[in-house]
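Subject: mismatched residue count in predicted assembly?

I count 1436 residues in my input, but I want to confirm that the predicted structure covers every chain. Input:
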Amino acid sequence: MNWLMFSGMSGVLGLIFVGFATVYVLRQSTGNARMVEISQAIHDGAMAYLSRQYKVLTLFIIVVGIILGLFISSYSSLAFLVGAILSLLSGFIGMKIGVSANARTAEAVSNNLNHGLRVAFFSGSVMGVTVVSLGVIGVTGIYFILTSKLDMFTAIQIIPAFSFGASSVALFARVGGGIFTKSADVGADLVGKVEAGIPEDDPRNPAVIADNVGDNVGDIAGMGADLYESYVGSIIAPITIGFAAFYMSSAESVKALGLNSMILPLVIAGIGILCSVFGTFFVRVSSDKAEQGVLLMALRRGVWIAAIGTALISLIAIKYIMGDWEIPWVSYILKEQGYVGIFYATLAGLIAGIIIGVATEYYTSQEYQPTRDIADASQTGAATTIIRGMAVGMQSTGIPIITVAIALLAAYYLARGNTGDARIDFLIGIYGISLAGIGMLSTLGITLATDAYGPVADNAGGIATQAQLPPEVRERTDALDSLGNTTAATGKGFAIGSAALTALGLTIAFIQAADFARAKAGLPPVETSLTLTNPLVLAGLFIGGMLPFLFCSFTLQAVGRAAYSMVNEVRRQWREIPGLMEGKTKPDYARCVDIATIGAQKEMIIPAMMAVIAPLLIGFLLGDAALVGLLTGAIVTGFLVAVMMANAGGAWDNAKKYIEGGAYGGKGSEAHKAGVVGDTVGDPFKDTSGPSLNILIKLMSIVALVFAALIVQNMLIH
Amino acid sequence: MNWLMFSGMSGVLGLIFVGFATVYVLRQSTGNARMVEISQAIHDGAMAYLSRQYKVLTLFIIVVGIILGLFISSYSSLAFLVGAILSLLSGFIGMKIGVSANARTAEAVSNNLNHGLRVAFFSGSVMGVTVVSLGVIGVTGIYFILTSKLDMFTAIQIIPAFSFGASSVALFARVGGGIFTKSADVGADLVGKVEAGIPEDDPRNPAVIADNVGDNVGDIAGMGADLYESYVGSIIAPITIGFAAFYMSSAESVKALGLNSMILPLVIAGIGILCSVFGTFFVRVSSDKAEQGVLLMALRRGVWIAAIGTALISLIAIKYIMGDWEIPWVSYILKEQGYVGIFYATLAGLIAGIIIGVATEYYTSQEYQPTRDIADASQTGAATTIIRGMAVGMQSTGIPIITVAIALLAAYYLARGNTGDARIDFLIGIYGISLAGIGMLSTLGITLATDAYGPVADNAGGIATQAQLPPEVRERTDALDSLGNTTAATGKGFAIGSAALTALGLTIAFIQAADFARAKAGLPPVETSLTLTNPLVLAGLFIGGMLPFLFCSFTLQAVGRAAYSMVNEVRRQWREIPGLMEGKTKPDYARCVDIATIGAQKEMIIPAMMAVIAPLLIGFLLGDAALVGLLTGAIVTGFLVAVMMANAGGAWDNAKKYIEGGAYGGKGSEAHKAGVVGDTVGDPFKDTSGPSLNILIKLMSIVALVFAALIVQNMLIH
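Triage response: the counts match. Full output below for your records.
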């Protein structure tokens, strides 16, 4: 119980830090009246969007809550609701601080770069640390309540409902936010930059506020909910697998570690929070030169300190929690004490996360060849820009997927038991895989901060332009923003990598849950049917593999349609509002925000339903083996397509920026026009469709896990 | 032995038909001197390409032949060489007739449409029937030789080497041809249509002959080799699975059908040849109006007659060959006699092929909504055209993949044995899946004819324009060509669907082969390790799933680079050759052909090596279970990405044609410019990267199968 206290207290300490950071941000000056006005418009737009989204969400949550209550148990409903509400809350807090920090960042950066960096970064930290703190507090709380009210077996079956709640909110936030932000962005660019030839963030563009709002609802609230879900899922997966591997083990020495194995994930998460908070204090620059390298180093310093701290302290914690295990298992290769294997498994995830981040940076930063190649291809027009970008996106799947494959194998073989009983050893190995997931996400508090700060800087730039601040202010915000693009790409690689590991962990947890339900029903374990020669598994793999493609198709079309309405609205305003293009009158910004909001709400229904219904449908019709096939297929292609789309999008964006920096004729050249086409195609790739896949694969696995017993009892084929 | 005679004779009869069809085509008039000259230039270009490609190929074949001889057996070398040579031969014959028929089609079409259709279609038939005849003769011959020289077990292990030979040639032909054709096409379009604003096939464009050559080397020779490989693979997979399921069965009544089960695939293929030839005689139109509907109906009539004939005769043959089986197995649901289940499994494949064809048509024809939506999106520029096209491509994966999944399940459950021994029943079900593959390809003779006729018509149009024939000739060739686009898209859907089933069959054959090798080595069967919870399988799935992305990245970049050289060469010629743009002097066509040839040769090496090395590397390093994971992952994503790219490309192409037909401002409008960008992006999608994936997945499975024993004996992990 002491260890549970520790993780809960880490969460509380995290929230205290959030309080201080919030006060720090809010005490900054908001700048002149014009800046306040713009910031207020963005704030109002964001809140208008949220309130409408929350209405849809509330309905959805109530319906699902009732279904859970009827078919599973009222505790399931409760866990689901708490998960959903905490996820909503972390999105809300993050966005609230984000929209409060934009004008303040613009003002701070006019003093000096370090000041701007700190304001933007601390507002990002509010988001990052809120997510992890509420995550750990929530899971710890639910674990505590359920295990004290119910028997352990029932409690463990119900905990995933918490993750289901978080996933549902994440789905709406990510998909809806993604559609909003890109319909506004693409729409604004298409008529603004391409047709009318006015610069980005020009106040004459009626869609400009909607675009700024989009940064907040998509990149902050959406990303936050996405990672909240990953984080929670990555803690819950090892808890349920620890239950199956240790708590229910037939070997006494293994069983003795049952409770510890379930608490360990919470403890590692708690350590991660403390180290992340510690790391934030090291993010500062002394020079006032807006150099990419200096800024990047500042952020990296914080992340590295957090990562190394987490690794070291986790080693000690693991030794205390899992170390009194006397059987001479693992580490298999290194012949060290057992707990070392568990530690290495966690470390494998942490390292894999870093490698994926570096690879993403390589493929999307204008410092390296791939992005420059796209810029080079822009010279022969838009078509070659697109072809080249697709090629880069596809190629960029290589390193992340090989890294995840190796991490998976390493975690399994390093953690795998050596009791002599193949089944027990296997399950401990699987537990290792699930710990790799939490290893990757342990420092999420600070990595998410480096990510969420980007949109704040982006917004600050928008405000600087619209409020006509001196050009050096925009230069500095651009430097912050450009760095934000890199950290955003890194963050996305990280989000999808962790989503794959988490979804995999949840799928394995589903298999264990299905096996418990099968044992009750007198059926043989599903595990024996999960071979690749089983036609049901193959059919599941095929259909599951297809779902991310279908899902992306829906979200891409959604952005297309919503952007199309936006284009028409902007054209209408320019046509009908006199004096707009001359800057004499103000456009109707709110109407554009409205259009994006309505578009996002309408368009997210089908993909959202798909994610919930597909696993249930296949589970009931073709059975649990086909369902595992479905989940695995979706994880594999979801990972691949997400990485491809995110990196292609990031690379197109930066290739355009590279040209704007003066290459191949610079702004206004033919190459630049082609670059803009690439960037526009990349927008929904990297900010709507790609990242939404994270949620798809996690949500489908969590739906399977929550409904595992019901599926096994009612499936047509087994 | 009678049945073997039958299949061999069907092949010979097919070749006799090919002889007559060739004579028919060659007896047509070649038109005026200018037409002969152009046709000759295309012919020379194609031969120059082939001779260079064959040099690379010969080297590759000799090296692999020696490796096979050293590590497996000299019979393996032999089978490999025969497979490779027959594949080369069918590509060569198809292309030779293709380049001979183009001017003749142009001339015939100036008489009347029916005449043109018949010349183009009969030249396509030469290709189609040659492929199937040489396929059946080759496999029958190798089967006969090996089974009479060696014991059955050894013979069956060696037969796949024939397929390996065919695959190797197919890889070079498809990838090399795809790179050639699209670098020429994209290059010609980028400088011609987009930059200089001259029409397609304008003789002032130095890349025009290279473009015409490309139609032949990519769409005829490449497609032919691709389908030769699928066809051969789809026959060999059920032979090897029949061996494991029946010949090696422990149940006497099942074992008694051993030889029959292995001969059945050859017999079905033979029936398909005869029916295909029969069907070709029904392809004719009476009216002279170039209506799409009438032409399409003419082609469909032939295909349908062949399909129905094949189905009916196969039912009779299956009753004779598999019918004297007295145990009351299958058809499981229908409670009919055993052979009916086998028949239904075959039929499932045939029907699945038709459904995939229809779905492909829906997504790529300008008659339907998806393509029109892309045209609609062109109004807001190139970016929305691309986004919409990607969405259509992704969405179009739905029906084909669900169809394949259902066909897979249907074939398995309908064919599955009912002996009471789960293992025997399972293997018979798997045999059913492999028969679905051959069912889909049984009428390849005529479906490939409808496909290969397209490039001939396309070339005829090119010649008509370059030789300045009257406009109604070009109109008629355009009608033939436009139909060709639809049949080409259908053919591609068909090619990838059959590739997926074939590769799946070969993968299952690999599992059986690995199990035989494991039994010899005293290891437990690999099948028990193939569960989705095995980290090795998961790692294999991830890496395998990634390979198609990496492969596409290479081929896309290859086209980009080669097209780039082409653009520069065309610009150089326009700059340096005086009087070219005024039409006073002739460009240096041969130099452009050369550039495309060199580009294709250079660029195909890495992807080709990847396909051969990846399965061996994973097999030796991570073992056969990981290798099965790799193959399965590659099949799933390969199928998905191939369908997505082929259909997106087809839809972009036809969306552009739809605009050119007058929609949204027609030719020269902004929408048209955007449409051209979409079409250009789609070119390598649909003609290089997408179709090459067929080969990738088949070749990897066949490599695994050929080296199965070697891998099992030498793998590091098991």
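Chain B has one domain: 2-518+535-714. Marking this ticket as 'not a bug'.
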